[in-house]
Amino acid sequence: MALEHAILVSLLEQPGSGYELARRFDRSIGRFWTATHQQIYRVLRRMEADGWVAAEEVAQDGRPDKKVYSAAGPGRAALAEWLREPVEPETVRHELAVKIRAAAFDDPAALTALISEVERHRESHAALLARYLHGEQRDFPDLDALDTRQELQHLVLRGGIEFERMNLAWLDDVLATLRRLASG
Amino acid sequence: MALEHAILVSLLEQPGSGYELARRFDRSIGRFWTATHQQIYRVLRRMEADGWVAAEEVAQDGRPDKKVYSAAGPGRAALAEWLREPVEPETVRHELAVKIRAAAFDDPAALTALISEVERHRESHAALLARYLHGEQRDFPDLDALDTRQELQHLVLRGGIEFERMNLAWLDDVLATLRRLASG
DNA sequence: ACAATCATGTAAGCCGTTACATGATTGG
DNA sequence: CCAATCATGTAACGGCTTACATGATTGT
Where is the Transcription regulator PadR C-terminal domain (chains A, B) (predicted)? Predict the structure, then answer.
């Protein structure tokens, strides 16, 4: 239940509207925490009611008004408290792994279908890795001159990069194995 | 929503009661799909109503009766159909990553607390890797003599092993970085 | 005696997804 | 003119977690 905390971190890095937050969750934050705009709006209202965030109505010309949220004192305190609590292990849900083991109980044609599926996954992971590497060059051009905040952001990004490299290597392994089984 | 399918795969590999399934989800299957016994019982009842699984009451001496489930024809058909549908990308929820970025907005003491947390995580991932490697030696002593089902099981296990190796390497990176930031 | 294991369940509540709705502006 | 973007929301449903409940047996 860390959506509140992910939102607080994002607002501390940069105040913004619910809409802007939703876009950040689609882009950078979505690397390690996903959320739809409906979730974000609902949680923002609750956080505002609890005094965790402060909202300021901002009139815009040519666009609808927006409510710009920023992290408030009680929100920072809640974040600090949460930081000191242990987190439980992440629950794993790996559909592709279920499919691979399921393929043993289907006819050989299922292996062929699974190969196409895995190829699609491989492509999307390769694209994600490319985006990470591009973002790294753009946001961290000089790795020897980072402040603490950037160091921590880059640390998380490195995790994403290594995760995707591992994924690609494993998916190559999966493809080689499935092709061997499909042809043999 | 692949819990049904994960259960079907498990029952195809070996029929069993809800309780036994829950234990498998705690052990081997939990590597790529988690579920509590409450979820499993509820889904099993629905699957039985839909004819996906067949239940047989088994009386035991000294223990409560149990219902042993096995995958039925419609269940296998549903699994085959699901295998041919594309899966969406997994949603990522990485609490530790949120905490690392949150640490930038707390006092330095938070970094120290986070280091202990990461050390705990490192230990549990190291233990998991050791269990995977041990299980690999036990269940797949001769990698050149595997049937298709075992090949696919080993493929998934290799994914788990590489995932944990990647995790360990990244957590070492995290510890080194946090310690440098905490002392500097 | 006590804890652990076997075996199954109810109930409450939050979380998350999906679909739908509104209404204005900008760019092709 | 149509699609996309900006901006916020309601409603319904189902999934998942947490807490609680029951009751017997085996091992220390």
Answer: 92-179
For chain B, what is the domain count? 2
Which residues in chain B touch residue A90, judged by CB atoms under 8 angstroms apart?
93-95
- The closest CB to that of B166, out of A9, A107, A166, belongs to A166
pLDDT of residue A1: 63
Examine residue A153 and state whether it is found in any structural domain, yes or no. Answer: yes
pLDDT at B26 over 90: no
**Residue B10, in any domain of the structure:** yes
Cα–Cα nearest to A170, from B53, B160, B1, B64: B160
Residue-wise pLDDT tens digits, A10-38: 999 999 999 999 999 988 888 889 999 99
Asked if residue A80 lies in contact with residue B106, where contact means CB atoms within 8 angstroms, the answer is yes
Per CA to C1' distance, which residue is closest to C14? Answer: A1
Q: Do residues A29 and A72 both lie within one domain? A: yes
CA within 13 Å, CB half, B49: 6
Q: Do B76 and B111 belong together in one domain?
A: no
CB contact under 8 A, A169 and B159: no
Q: CB contact, 8 Å: A169 with chain B?
A: yes
Domain boundary among B62, B84, B106: B84
| B87·A96 Cβ contact <8 A | yes
Q: What is the pLDDT of residue A79?
A: 94
Contacts of B161 in chain A (CB under 8 A): none
Instruction: Kindly report each contact of residues A43-46 with a partner whose C-beta sits within 8 Å and lies 24 or more positions away, as own/partner.
Output: A43/A3, A43/A4, A43/A7, A44/A7, A44/A18, A44/A69
Is there a domain that residue B66 lies in? yes
pLDDT more than 90, % of chain B: 82
pLDDT cut 70: percent of chain B above it: 99
Site from B10, B36, B105 to mutate, A interface, most A CB atoms within 10 angstroms: B105
Mean pLDDT to the nearest integer, A58-74: 87
Sign of CA dihedral A60, A62, A67, A71: negative
Closest approach of A57 to chain B, Cα-based (Å):
25
The answer as to whether B143 is a domain residue is: yes
Q: What is the mean pLDDT of residues B85-113?
A: 91
Q: What is the pLDDT of residue B118?
A: 95
Expressed as residue numbers, the domain containing A163 is 95-183
- Could you read off the pLDDT of B100-125 as tens digits, one per residue? 999 999 999 999 999 999 999 999 99
Which domain-ending residue is among B56, B84, B112?
B84
